[in-house]
Design goal:
Shape: globular
Largest sheet: 4 strands, parallel
Number of helices: 6
Oligomer: single chain
Strand content: 15-25%
Order of helices and strands: EHEEHEHHEHEHEE
Number of strands: 8
Length: 161
Amino acid sequence: MAVLLLKDPEEDDCGQDPYIRELGLYGLEATLIPVLSFEFLSLPSFSEKLSHPEGYGGLIFTSPRAVEAVELCLEKDNKTKVWRKSLKEKWNAKSVYVVGNATASLVNKIEKLAECICSRESSALPLLFPCGTLKREILLKMLKDRGIPAAPGYRPQQDPE
């Protein structure tokens, strides 16, 4: 039997999408169909923020796209040398928070992340938070309620195709 999965492909430790692998174990043939197009907005503004780590207490990554945005900023603006020379060291001296694989409930992960950040941060500087609109509001509200400043770094655009 054929199954259509409306999602972007992901690779697990075996180099295969976990849904395709799992469905295959039950004799089902799965095909992945991406349902969204994606475009980064505000990368120049985000790139400028990345160039000034002294203005932030750390970074928050809640998706692989946030990491991709950093990579794009470094490549696009030819900042790879500057990154290696000074920026990387300056950012590495700061707190960096990362949400793991997107398998558990997103809200639960964000709540745990907010609790972790709030228990460790006391800086007056905001945390740079490259994120999409779905995750941004939940985490920013939780941090704000606990007195931790965070500054969204870029705004992605997602449109149904």
